[in-house]
Model the fold of this input.
Amino acid sequence: MSLVFPKTAAIEMTKEKIMLNCDTCGNPYQEGPHRYEGHKLHRYGGIMVCDGCWQGNHDGWNPHFEPILLGILKEKGLPVPERNEQGLLPRE
Ligand SMILES: [Zn+2]
Done:
């Protein structure tokens, strides 16, 4: 038995993209349907960042983003994570 969706419903689903803005760089990214580019940062209170930020800062956050991240931690009352070997804030 297979589940068949009406064709019109499939078209509706691809037409409506859910766009959100990255919490660190501010650029829009797609968060469904079909494509999910956001990454959740649990250590930073569950903020969502785009795939570009996620891939580009795999070694730790570029110092350029530190004021934003530290601001988020302060706002949420969270501790600042221990820095990695490069002296950068950990990505996740
Ligand atoms: Zn971003």
User: Anything to note?
Assistant: Residues 66-76 form the longest helix (11 residues). Residues 73 and 79 are 7 Å apart (CA to CA).
